[in-house]
Specification:
The chain is built from 10 helices and 19 strands. It is 30% helix and 27% strand. It has 2 domains: 313 residues, Rossmann fold; 102 residues, no CATH class. By secondary structure, it is α+β, with helices and mostly antiparallel strands. This is DUF3696 domain-containing protein.
Length: 428
């Protein structure tokens, strides 16, 4: 689980400060305020660690198999108007339930440009407990290595350049002696944390009428939910201890949202062809014929149960096309599944209903404020600014920005005033 994130000079962020992340974290704010940039920083690192070329420093566009976003160039990532040094940085802390190896650590990396205008690591810092390892870029692409603040003598050159932003080179590991395995384990833990990110964006594919089953479980649902049906078919049809887990989980939440009684994977007459069927009020409907809200929430529910335990699930606007009650129930989904399956949710949302239900869950004592972090992102003079919402044990927010969700009480007062005036005029 990621427990802290910090960005400097990254897109619209001059400095986020330390952003504490919980098992559930909600990011709220106006359009184009910088919420997506927070999410994209982690996705940029994920597509970098998955890059086939281990010598790459930062994979801005990814390749066909690993691309999550095309970030363009160094100039499009660097904050406009950033002063010297022209660098941006990404940093995070993490914790893992590891029986062996590294269970907690920190990553911080500063990126700049080379003379050839490619992106290069300028300062990489990996830490665990009371140990810190650094790779610092010097002149002409040479790197120096430091351990716990002390630069290793005679260790400098381009062959000590970091790999995929998170790992020290084989030459560096060799020169570290007995610390070599420590930094390797730390890099591996960071890699696993990033690899286990599951991302679902706001633009999701609508389901098809029927599917061919490949008799295998996909490793990821896809950023647009394209492999949702494959995940559901694998859950229903592959024998094993977890058979039906994803389908049953999806059915449970469709029912709690009051949009369906259950979901079924149903074989058609043709061999290896299946359809997804929604049951409601005794009727059976192909998922391509149900409302768009049901169709687009299926990937959200499926990834909650298909992601491996210990994963971080990043969602953008999971509430799209859902009615208010269903939006509210999403808050319960995040809290319950995070607790039951040990997964983390980082959610960008505009839903007042989701937010209000999270307040209620805190007030009920079903989730602690520190386990349901909420932030408001806004523009301040052209740069993004982060506001940690101060939520007490009763779910009350002490520093809510005016006007974001409108003024419900003000609207009610205005309606009452107008009603009173009209009645008064009618009685005259």
């Amino acid at each position: 689980m990621f427990t802290r994130l910090r960005l400097t000079n990254f897109k619209v962020w001059r400095d986020t400060g330390d952003v504490a992340l919980g098992p559930v974290t909600l990011l709220l704010g106006t359009n184009s305020s910088g919420k997506s940039s927070l999410i994209q920083s982690l996705l940029l690192l994920k597509q970098t660690v998955l890059a086939p070329d281990r010598s790459v420093h930062l994979s801005l566009s990814g390749d066909e198999a690993t691309a999550l976003f095309d970030f363009g160039s160094f100039e499009t990532v660097l904050l406009q108007g950033a002063g010297a040094p022209r660098q941006f940085s990404i940093a995070f802390d993490f914790e893992r339930a590891a029986a062996t190896g590294v269970s907690r650590g920190s990553f911080e990396c500063h990126y700049g440009q080379t003379a050839a205008r490619s992106v290069a690591v300028h300062d990489l810092r990996l830490s665990t407990d009371d140990r810190q390892f650094r790779a610092v870029r010097r002149e002409k692409g040479a790197y120096a290595i430091a351990v716990d603040g002390k630069t290793l003598p005679g260790v400098r050159g381009p062959h000590y350049a970091p790999e995929r932003s998170i790992a020290f080179s084989a030459h560096a590991v060799s020169r570290l002696g007995h610390d070599g395995p420590v930094v390797e384990d730390l890099s591996l833990a960071i890699r696993r944390e990033l690899e286990q990110i599951r991302y679902l964006g706001p633009l999701r594919r609508r389901p098809q009428r029927d599917y061919a089953w490949q008799k295998a479980a996909p490793g990821d649902i896809g950023s647009d939910g394209a492999r949702t049906a494959d995940v559901l078919m694998a859950s229903a049809l592959l024998k094993g201890n977890d058979q039906g887990q994803v389908v049953n989980g999806v059915s449970k939440w469709l029912q709690r949202m009051k949009v369906a009684d259950r979901l079924e994977v149903r074989q058609l007459g043709r061999a290896s062809r299946y359809e997804l069927v929604v049951h409601r009020d005794g009727l059976m409907t192909n998922v391509s014929d149900v409302g768009i809200g049901v169709a687009l929430v299926l990937p959200v529910l499926a990834v909650a149960y298909a992601a491996p335990q210990g994963s971080t699930i990043i969602l953008e606007e999971p509430e799209i096309h859902l009615h208010p009650l269903a939006q509210s129930v999403l808050a319960e989904l995040f809290v319950e599944v995070s607790r039951e399956r040990g997964v983390q949710f980082i959610v960008e949302t505009h839903s007042e209903h989701l937010f209000r239900r999270m307040q209620t869950l805190i007030a009920r004592g079903e989730v602690a404020p520190d386990d349901a972090r909420m932030y408001f992102v806004e523009h301040d003079g052209g740069n993004a600014r982060m506001r940690a919402l101060a939520v007490d044990e009763f779910g009350r927010v002490g520093n809510w920005p005016d006007g974001f969700f409108g003024d419900a009480l003000g609207e009610t007062r205005e309606q009452a005033r107008l009603m009173f005036e009209r009645r008064k005029r009618g009685g005259e």
